[in-house]
DNA sequence: GCGGTGACTGACA
DNA sequence: CTGTCAGCCACCG
């Protein structure tokens, strides 16, 4: 039997999950990986972002699980990411974003869209 | 096949 | 709160 849907490459799923993050929202590497159906592959997400060529990809919305920027402070990517996040209305303080303690529900991810929640 | 490295994570002191 | 340790997966020499 033919499969109803061909499984897209993991990379495609990850990219899709990243694109699914609305403006003014942020997501963690592990969270994106989980959304992509690849739990434990947070590093893979990072590798993709590091080698991504897509300017339309909101890579700046991807932060660490602690809500901290994955770039070293003072680095070029760091400043660029913070700059973009602030431009979208995301409150970035000291290179870190106010992240919820933990949420294991896809519904919560939707709450990450509108800021000032 | 092996060890080192990295835009990571969670647990522990 | 910060810092350290071990676990994890994918890529490279």
Description:
The protein is mainly alpha-helical and 117 residues long. 38% of the residues lie in helices and 7% in strands. It contains five helices and four strands. The chain has a two-stranded parallel sheet with strand order 1-2. The protein is globular and about 55 Å long. It starts with 9 loop residues before the first helix and ends in a 6-residue tail after the last helix. The structure holds a DNA duplex (13 and 13 nucleotides).
Could you write a compact summary of the structure shown?
It is built from five helices and four strands, in the order αβααβαββα. The protein has 117 residues and is mainly alpha-helical.
* CATH hierarchy class name: Mainly Alpha
Oligomer: single chain
Proportion of β residues? 5-15%
- The overall pLDDT, averaged over residues, is 86
Based on the coordinates given, report the CATH architecture.
Answer: Orthogonal Bundle
Residue windows where pLDDT falls under 50 for at least 5 positions: none
Radius of gyration: 14 Å
Structural class: mainly alpha
| Total beta-strand segments | 4
Number of helices: 5
Quickly count the domains: 1
The coarse overall form would be: globular
CATH topology: Arc Repressor Mutant, subunit A
Strand order, largest beta sheet: 1-2
- CATH superfamily membership, which one? Winged helix-like DNA-binding domain superfamily/Winged helix DNA-binding domain
Percentage of residues in helical conformation: 25-40%
- Element-level helix/strand string: HEHHEHEEH
Largest sheet, strands/sense/barrel: 2 strands, parallel
Distance between the termini: 47 Å
């Amino acid at each position: 039997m033919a499969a109803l849907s061909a499984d897209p490459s993991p990379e495609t799923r990850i990219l899709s999950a990243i694109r699914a993050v609305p403006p003014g929202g942020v997501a963690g590497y592990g969270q994106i990986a989980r959304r992509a159906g690849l739990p434990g592959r947070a590093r893979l997400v990072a590798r993709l972002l590091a080698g991504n060529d897509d300017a339309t990809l909101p890579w700046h919305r991807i932060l660490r699980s602690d809500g901290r920027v994955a770039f070293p402070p003072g680095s070029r990517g760091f400043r660029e990411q913070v700059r973009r996040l602030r431009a979208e209305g995301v409150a970035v303080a000291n290179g870190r974003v106010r992240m919820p303690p933990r949420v294991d529900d896809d519904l919560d991810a939707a709450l990450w869209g509108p800021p000032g929640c």
